[in-house]
Amino acid sequence: WLFFCLLLPFPPARASCPHPCHCTGHSGAMAVLCSAKHLAEIPKDIPKDAVFVKLDANKITQVPNNAFKHLNHLEELDLSRNAIEKIDLAAFRGVADGLRTLDLSNNLIQRIPKEALVKLNAKIRLSNNPWHCECALQEVLWEVQLDPESVSEITCQTSVREEYVGKPLIQVLDSGVNFCSIHQKTTDVAMFVTMFGWFTSARVHQVYTARHNQEDARKHLEYLKSLPSTQVPKETISTVL
Fold this sequence. Notes:
The protein contains five helices and eleven strands, in the order αβββββββββαββααα. Helix 2 (135-143) runs antiparallel to helix 4 (179-226). Strands 1-2-3-5-7-8-10 form a seven-stranded mixed sheet, covered by helices on one side. A two-stranded parallel sheet has the order 4-6. Strands 9-11 form a two-stranded parallel ribbon. By secondary structure, it is of the alpha/beta class. Keywords: Leucine-rich repeat, Membrane, Repeat, Signal, Transmembrane, Transmembrane helix. It is a single-pass membrane protein.
């Protein structure tokens, strides 16, 4: 009987729920609820069959590369109301095809690499973060699918231009502002200033060298004149002159 029992197939073990989260649902459609659990980082043992993951209202500061790579069934991910400042380039690798909703609102995000979001098919909430409005952020908005209800809540806390601080980004862009053209103009001006500085330095050096050579020639001439006339051929003095 023991040998016979060993031959029987064992039912697959159910994935454990990360502490101190609560997991509900059934195999293939798991909801992992980790709201307000004082988590400082994203749990590494979220069940592979998770479809819905709530990590909101915690103390998470970073979304590292491949944080959700093993969650092939993930459709909704809530990371709102954390202290997230940094999102790595490959933070959402592995969930691009199936993810439908991604909530990053109410964090501390100032900048986000567009490479982290461009391959996602999800509707993304980016509202209520201390955004720095610049070309890079504008490129992100061009590439991703924003949740339309949250667009007006993306505000410039800082900006490449002081007059845009405190304004909704969509309002600034609708007025015809293009941060990328501003960036290009700033780069062109910086290049011009650099080239002008280099040219000025070269010109100053050239003038200094010419004057230094003239001074050496004058001193040499005075030395020749101070010698007895029999020692200094006239053709030598005329050459110096």
